[in-house]
Write a structure and sequence with these properties.
The complex is a heterodimer of chains A (about 300) and B (about 325).
Chain A lengths: L1 H26 L7 H22 L4 H27 L4 H24 L20 H19 L1 H11 L1 H6 L4 H27 L11 H11 L4 H23 L8 H18 L20
Helix pairs in contact in A: 1-5, 1-8, 1-9, 1-10, 2-3, 2-4, 2-8, 2-9, 3-4, 3-8, 5-6, 9-10, 9-11, 10-11
Chain B lengths: L1 H4 L7 H26 L7 H18 L6 H27 L3 H22 L34 H18 L1 H11 L1 H6 L4 H28 L11 H11 L4 H23 L5 H16 L3 H18 L1
Helix pairs in contact in B: 2-6, 2-9, 2-10, 2-11, 3-4, 3-5, 3-9, 3-10, 4-5, 4-9, 6-7, 6-9, 6-11, 7-9, 10-11, 10-12
Classes of the chains: A mainly alpha (about 300), B mainly alpha (about 325).
């Protein structure tokens, strides 16, 4: 039983971390459709850094370095989205899609340069389970969501950030630097997206391939909307989507479920996401100014 | 350029034909993306609609005993199923305000898994083995080749030309197109002037899906030509986003940019022969999309210049 819970939490953690980043970003008023690409970049960076350091004999510390590298590189890439959507006032969906496309190309390109194939070389040992049977990513993800809740709701900065997503003109009028806050929002979604990608690749597999992330960034994006842009809601939504992702793996372990083709279980997470979005649509809970560039001085 | 590069500098018409054949799905997926974009929707779902169109064509080609003109039925099935797969998103968007971006992406993945699910479990087993490469499709269901017979250029090319013309005609010349564009410019204003925006959104997504579905049929019946079991995404749908953005969602623009992407795709094999990773193409594509997003930044430069000019005039 603990095995199943551990498996579910292993799949939940990356989605929860990414969704937290997406939530912060949207609360500051920028929609980040590029989460999927940012996860890919994080996963690729972590896989390469960990493999190289492991080869150089760095020991277990290389996992920490790989995670930090993943977050930093992904954060740097997210600045592109920041410049486009905050300074250039671009269409945020287009720029996010650009990031996604860039990430698919760039990650495989880097692997080609490093290893001459379309995937990274296998590393020997990823993260290991602790004495309870859980991966450390579980604790990282819980820490991230609790921290996000504390910062968003219990600090002046969080209030400022939420104000920028609801009514940037009002925030500006009381002296809040909307541009700075939105950059912080985008940057944190980049950092967390990269961290999530790193967490995913170091727990779930032994190498980065172009199909590894497989739309989980978009599932995280759906979790933000389904969770109504609140930490508790995002946590619940991520649990639901992660559990339905785990179903595909669990079904292959239970003999009774083997008669059902595996694709049925693969479809379930996406179907659940879609149905959840329909059921919980209705009233609009989204931050009012999310996705709209703020123009200073334009009433 | 592509015609020349392959074999020692001489023109090779086979490559021209291949380039045009590759540009067929790019242009059709570009039309799919562009049609929704003109109504203010971001249809990332061309990939899924393409997959479902391909699946429909596949089922008709395999399950119905061969008869002359079968390809027409295949194409029709692809059009209808593509339209349904797109139209569902339109209805969800218009009625329930579900973000079309997330909904289409979910449907992309559902389509991706639905394809092998249906192929491996519901179609007659005799026509398949589990490796993916199987017997050729019946000759009556294929799109016949023309003009350059040693390349893959097929009569899907005429479907594509027709689609471009239909796109232009609907968008620019009909009442429907006007109401769609009005919804895209300002949904509330359109509704106030008596345009049914719910209908406009659903219809535009359905038409947009039909274009992508047609692309799926053209690829299966014209390029692949055997009953392939799709295991990943072919990426024509995602490329369609870039095609439509480069073509600025205009019929002629999409046509030209689709040809450009066809050239890039045909360049894959040549580039790999020269030791350049083919992912460079995807990187270029991503950069194109990002720079198009940054396009709105140009107006900032214009504003800045105007400000400098005004300041000079004041100081005079």
């Amino acid at each position: 039983m603990i095995g199943y819970i551990s498996l579910i939490m292993m799949l939940v953690a990356p989605i929860l971390i990414t969704a937290t980043g997406g939530m912060i970003c949207e609360r500051s008023g920028v929609v980040n459709v590029g989460l999927d690409g940012l996860m890919s970049i994080g996963a690729c960076t972590a896989a390469i850094v960990h493999q190289q350091l492991e080869l150089a004999g760095c020991g277990r510390i290389s996992i920490v370095i790989a995670l930090i590298a993943a977050a930093v590189v992904s954060g740097l890439v997210s600045i592109i989205h920041g410049v486009a959507s905050i300074d250039m006032k671009a269409d945020q969906t287009i720029s996010g899609t650009g990031i996604n496309l860039l990430a698919t190309g760039l990650t495989v390109f880097v692997c080609q340069r490093f290893y001459n194939t379309d995937r990274s070389k296998e590393f020997m040992l990823g993260m290991t389970r602790d004495s309870l049977g859980f991966y450390p990513t579980l604790y990282i993800s819980l820490a991230v969501i609790v921290l996000a809740w504390f910062v968003l709701y219990k600090t002046p900065f969080g209030l400022h950030l939420r104000a920028c997503g609801e009514h940037p003109a009002a925030a500006d009028s009381v002296g809040i630097n909307v541009r700075r806050i939105r950059y912080i929002g985008v940057l944190s979604s980049g950092l967390l997206g990269g961290l999530a990608g790193g967490c995913a690749v170091l727990t779930q597999t032994i190498q980065y391939t172009s199909t590894f992330v497989n739309g989980r960034g978009f599932i995280a994006l759906a979790a933000v909307a389904f969770g109504r842009w609140t930490p508790l809601g995002v946590f619940g939504a991520s649990m639901l989507f992660g559990a339905s992702l785990a179903l595909a793996t669990i079904s292959s372990m239970i003999p009774a479920l083997k008669v059902v083709p595996s694709q049925v279980f693969n479809i379930i997470p996406y179907l659940v996401t879609l149905i959840a979005l329909i059921i919980f649509s209705g009233r609009d809970y989204a931050p009012k100014a999310s996705g709209i560039p703020y123009e200073k001085g334009a009433s | 350029m592509i015609g020349k590069a392959a074999k020692g500098g001489g023109w090779n018409f086979r490559n021209v034909g291949e380039t045009l054949a590759f540009s067929i799905p790019y242009i059709l997926c570009g039309l799919s993306m562009g049609f929704a974009a003109r109504v203010g929707l971001f249809n990332i779902g061309a990939e899924g609609q393409y997959t479902m169109g391909m699946l429909a064509a596949h089922i008709v080609a395999v399950c119905i005993p061969a008869f002359p003109g079968q390809w027409l039925l295949c194409v029709l099935a692809a059009l209808v199923v593509g339209a349904i797969w797109g139209g569902v998103v339109g209805i969800l968007k218009a009625k329930y305000k579900v973000s079309e971006v997330v909904a289409t992406i979910m449907l992309n993945y559902i389509a991706m898994y639905l394809y092998p699910l249906i192929c491996l479990n519901l179609l007659p087993q005799a026509t398949f083995n589990k490796t993916g490469r199987t017997a050729d499709l019946a000759e009556t269901s294929l799109l016949s080749k023309f003009l350059i017979s040693d390349s893959n250029l097929n009569i899907g090319f005429f479907f594509m030309i027709a689609a471009v013309l239909i796109y232009w005609f609907i968008m620019e010349k009909t009442r429907l197109g006007f109401s769609l564009r009005a919804t895209g410019f300002n949904k509330d204003a359109a509704r106030c002037s008596g345009i049914n925006d719910t209908q406009a959104i659903s219809l535009s997504m359905a038409i947009s899906g039909a274009f992508a579905g047609l692309a799926g049929a053209c690829v299966l019946l014209g390029l692949v030509r055997y009953s392939k079991i799709l295991t990943g995404q072919d990426n024509y749908g995602f490329m369609g986003i870039a095609v439509a953005l480069v073509g600025n969602s205009r019929a002629l623009g999409i046509f030209l940019s689709g040809i450009l992407f066809g050239i890039l795709k045909q360049a894959y094999s040549i580039m790999q022969g020269m030791g350049i990773p083919k992912e460079v193409v995807t990187v270029i594509e991503g950069l194109i999309v990002i720079f198009i997003a940054l396009r709105s930044g140009l107006s900032l430069i214009k504003d800045y210049r105007a400000k400098v000019k005004a300041r000079k005039e004041v100081s005079k």
